[in-house]
Amino acid sequence: MAALEDNRPPDALLRIVHGGRAVEVDRSGRRHRGTADLVEDPEAVAAALRQVLAAGTSPRSLGLRMERGHVVSADDVRATGRTLLRLDVA
């Protein structure tokens, strides 16, 4: 089980879950079990970002600065070195 609440730098936490790890996530006072995995494929990261942005999440809340109407591409992801921590929890 990966503990993502320790004081390691973010890069070290991401390396812990690379390849998929069991995790526990506390949300609203409840503990949920699931898996976490580091997604590094630029196409997959871009697709996930497009989906989240299309659902109404503001780019700023994701730490992104983009022109209104810009569609995130795999080239954008490559240029910024973005990765994605994918959580699948029940």
Overview of the structural elements:
By secondary structure, the protein is of the alpha+beta class. It has one domain. The protein contains 3 helices and 3 strands; from the N terminus they run αββααβ. The protein has helices spanning 10-17, 42-54, 74-80, and strands spanning 21-27, 30-39, 84-89. Strands 1-2-3 form a 3-stranded antiparallel sheet. A hairpin with a 2-residue loop joins strand 1 (21-27) and strand 2 (30-39). The longest helix has 13 residues, at 42-54. It is globular. The two termini are 15 Å apart. The relative contact order is 0.22.
SSE diagram, text form:
Layout: H1 10-17, E1 21-27, E2 30-39, H2 42-54, H3 74-80, E3 84-89
Antiparallel strand pairs: 1-2, 2-3
Question: How would you summarize this macromolecular structure in one to three sentences?
Answer:
By secondary structure, the protein is α+β, with helices and mostly antiparallel strands. The chain has helices at 10-17, 42-54, 74-80; strands at 21-27, 30-39, 84-89.
Distinctive features:
alpha+beta, 90 residues, 3 helices, single chain
> Helical residue percent?
25-40%
Structural category: alpha+beta
Percentage of β-strand residues: 25-35%
CA radius of gyration? 14 Å
Separation of the first and last Cα atoms: 15 Å
Quaternary state of the chains: single chain
